[in-house]
Amino acid sequence: MDTEDYWGLIERSGMHATDLDTRATWLVNKLSGMSRADIVEFKLRHAEVKRAADTWPMWGAAYLICEGWCSEDAFWYFQSWLIGLDRETYERATADPDTLADASQIQRLTTDDADMEPPEWELLDYVADQAYERATGEEDGLNHILKARGVMLPVNPEPPEDGLDEGQAERARRLPRLMETFPPAETLPDALSMEDILDRHLAREGKTREEFFPHLPTDQEP
């Protein structure tokens, strides 16, 4: 399986369904019917394609798009979500992340649509693992194959050190259109508080504060 085959499967999944869970299930079903070698190669091609988005400028773009809440995990799965948009959008964005301001899928994130999925696609990282286990019955078999080859794929963002200063001034210089589309909290007209930003983030994630902070003690009557 080469890069063209990889992108072909990604884009066919988007023709099959729009929601990410269904697309991931479709990919698992397709991959599990392929050879073991192809499943392994899909995993390797995914890591290879994803690496192009693992940069400080892209993290700056994700920071703005996610309204200032973009942890390592969030950025890691943002990269996979970006792959899921389509190849043209992805390749244009990896060359210049500010072009994401032109993408219709990004523009929809500016709406208050409660059904809008967050810009993350965690399941895409694991479709090859699930397909390999289904095809072979070997739990964690794909990882064993990769380790036997001496291949260690990253599981967190590892952008090059000579990247973007995360300061707002640098983001404004490199990402002017995204800054206009997703203005940082301190430049929003209504000066949203941190609680407002958190509530907007939770609404997008479909979570409550209790789910987001499961270990915080709740207020109790004395």
Automatic annotation (TrEMBL):
Residues 1-134 form the DUF4240 domain. It comes from the Bacteria. This is DUF4240 domain-containing protein. It comes from Sphaerisporangium album.
